[in-house]
């Protein structure tokens, strides 16, 4: 009897730091604040694991550059908005069908280590 092996693999980015305009208050619109971003992209890494070729992988450097640009250009009010935009962008551009995104604001609440949102978005076949 032959066995079918199903993989669940991820490419992850942990603690990407981006300085950006973010927040709902007037004073926040005049400064940049740090954001810490985590991303987990479900993707089959078997091919890249065999070929050792970046063309067969999700290039995490490219993803980091995209996220940084997106956060700095958007100047969002809410971290929710950034999380949605990041998830949407990754699902449309990269070889993944499920992405988990966390956006944290480590300096927003002095009494807290960080405040954050975390979302999971799955692409549906159209
Ligand atoms: N759920 C959210 N609550 C709040 C946000 C946010 O982005 N999502 N933002 C703020 C302010 O901008 C805050 O960070 C200033 O300290 C308040 N609540």
TrEMBL record:
Reaction(s) this enzyme catalyzes, per UniProt: 7,8-dihydroneopterin = 7,8-dihydromonapterin; 7,8-dihydroneopterin = 6-hydroxymethyl-7,8-dihydropterin + glycolaldehyde
GO cellular component, one term: cytoplasm
Pathway the protein contributes to: Cofactor biosynthesis; tetrahydrofolate biosynthesis; 2-amino-4-hydroxy-6-hydroxymethyl-7,8-dihydropteridine diphosphate from 7,8-dihydroneopterin triphosphate: step 3/4
Entry's EC annotation: 4.1.2.25
Entry keyword Lyase: yes
Keyword vocabulary terms for this entry: Folate biosynthesis, Isomerase, Lyase
Pfam families (alphabetical): FolB
Gene Ontology biological-process entries: folic acid biosynthetic process; tetrahydrofolate biosynthetic process
An annotated Gene Ontology molecular function: isomerase activity
The Dihydroneopterin aldolase/epimerase domain, residue ranges: 11-121
Domain of life: Bacteria
UniProt keyword Oxidoreductase, yes or no: no
NCBIfam families: folB, folB_dom
Entry similarity comment: Belongs to the DHNA family.
Role this protein plays: Catalyzes the conversion of 7,8-dihydroneopterin to 6-hydroxymethyl-7,8-dihydropterin.
Database matches in PANTHER family: DIHYDRONEOPTERIN ALDOLASE 1-RELATED
Name of the protein this chain belongs to: 7,8-dihydroneopterin aldolase
Natural source organism: Psychrobacter pasteurii
Lineage summary: Bacteria, Pseudomonadati, Pseudomonadota, Gammaproteobacteria, Moraxellales
């Amino acid at each position: 009897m032959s066995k079918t092996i199903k993989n669940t693999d991820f490419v992850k980015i942990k603690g990407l730091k981006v300085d950006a305009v973010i927040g709902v208050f007037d004073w926040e619109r005049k400064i940049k604040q740090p954001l810490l971003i985590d991303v987990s992209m479900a993707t089959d890494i078997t091919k890249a694991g065999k070929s050792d070729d970046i063309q067969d992988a999700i290039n995490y450097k490219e993803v980091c550059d995209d996220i940084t640009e997106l956060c700095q250009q958007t100047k969002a009010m809410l971290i929710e908005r950034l999380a949605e935009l990041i998830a949407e962008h990754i699902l449309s551009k990269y070889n993944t069908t499920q992405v988990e995104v966390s956006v944290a604001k480590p300096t927003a609440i002095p009494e807290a280590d960080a405040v954050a949102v975390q979302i999971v978005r799955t692409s549906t076949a159209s």
